[in-house]
Amino acid sequence: MTAPEGGPAALRKAARRARRLDARDPLAPFPGRFAPVPDGRLLLDGASLGRLPAATPALLDRVVRDEWGSRFARAGTQWRDLPQRIGDRMAEAVLGARPGEVVAGDCTSVNLYKLTAAALEARPGRRTVVVDDDNSPTDRHVVAGVAAERERALRTVHTHPDTGLDMATLRSAVDEDTAVVVLPLVSPRSGALLDMAQVHEVVHAQGALVLWDLSHAVGAVDLQLAATGADMAVAATYKHLMAGPGCPALLYVRRDLQACAAQPVHGWYGHREPFAARPRYDPDPTIRRFLTGTPPALSLAAAEPALDLLAEAGMAAVRAKSLALTGFLTELAGAVLEPYGLRPAGPAAPERRGPHVTYRHPRAGKLVPALAAAELFVDHLPPDRVRLAPGPLSTRFADLVEAVGRFRDVLACFAPARPAAEPGGRAS
Q: Any bridge partners for residue 103, and if so which?
């Protein structure tokens, strides 16, 4: 099969441009601060699991050998405040939140359960929970379960699968009976990014709360929870926060809501006096009330090296690099990959995108394993989407040129190419 004429030429031109972009990238030193991957592998699956910071193995070795292995049970005293200490670091470095508003513990689904129930407690008399149909399935399962358990109505709003939730649709779904609206800031599928302040304006006008899932945003989008008046949020930490598999999720509750938001999973670590062995449960008055059981110290410790990197880089710079990477990638994919049948499945405007881009292909389920065989790792979103998520601190522009070249070679085995579109025009 003959490749489109624009393909090889576009790749050569892109390679020259990538060298210039990498040379003047203010975050250029950061890829060298991650653990090396086997030669030839290209990782564009940061929306599933972030890269391993080079400092993490040594830190965990020190925690295991020097704190656990040498100090034995006495080491536990320095781990007791880890959920709050790591939470405060996340608040400052990546969330734009205040001290005492974030803890790390449990998984995202458990935290979502806690906060959905807490939001209902904070809005007594309101009987409706709103969720959108483009949220991750597990979020919808959890929210539906809480609504059924507490005999609340569940209202599901339709989100465009490529461009995201329309504000007029949201506005029509929220009324004076709405207690809480549960939304992803960045769509896991399309990458569509919502305007947080605009959503707050719509929902707060009806007296309801917003519970955000920030899993596909935190660590790559410059979040300002305090400035936008965010109510509650949860997020996985193993994606763009690069805290590693099994690291507990974060949980955020605005300070003035904490006293009236009772979480349903009572445990000793959320007690006002956790070591007093009181017979009755008395929740801590602070953000600690949203904890339940013993914190997983080793997993929490693994969160710190990535937070160090993100704090050093600054989230404004991280977001700028993310936009530059996805912009470069979509431009190159348009010239080289779309002639082979790959189709964009996300917002076209950069400011409407989170840190990943999504494409549609009828044979995506077979395409992604074939890409992995070519040492290019991306995500398959059933039934027909391919998600590419370049890590802002770990990806070079040159990596994207190489990735698109491999992608083209694999695509060429799946479908004949069509002529590339002329700039500003359409393919014939």
A: 251
> CA-CA distances (angstroms) from residue 314 to 6, 55, 393?
37, 18, 11
Q: Residue 367 corresponds to which tokens in the numbers above?
A: 């395409």
Of 197, 252, 250, 182, whose CA–CA distance to 227 is shortest? 197
Strands (E), 264-412: 343-344, 357-360, 376-377, 379-381, 385-388
Please state, as a whole number, how many other Cβ atoms lie within 10 Å of the Cβ of residue 167: 14
One-letter amino acid for residue 52 of the chain? L
Alpha-carbon 396 to chain mean position: 20
Tens-place pLDDT, residues 259-279: 999 999 999 999 999 988 899
In the chain, the amino acid numbered 404 is V
Q: What is the pLDDT of residues 91-129, one digit of tens each?
A: 999 999 999 999 999 999 999 999 999 999 999 999 999
Residue-wise pLDDT tens digits, 184-202: 999 999 999 999 999 999 9
Nearest to 191 by CA among 221, 166, 163, 218: 163
Which alpha helices (H) appear in 150-244, and where do they start and end? Answer: 167-173, 196-204, 225-228
> What's the CA gap between 104 and 79, in Å, rounded?
13
Give the relative orientation of helices 6-23 and 315-336 as an angle to the nearest 10 degrees: 160
User: Where are the extended beta strands (E) located within 9-69?
Assistant: 42-43
Specify which residues 146 forms β-bridges with.
none
Per this entry, what is the length of the chain?
Answer: 428
The number of angstroms, rounded, from the C-alpha of 26 to the middle of its chain's C-alpha atoms is 23
The secondary structure of 87-136 as a DSSP string is HHHHIIIII---TTSEEE-S-HHHHHHHHHHHHHHHSTT--EEEEETTS-
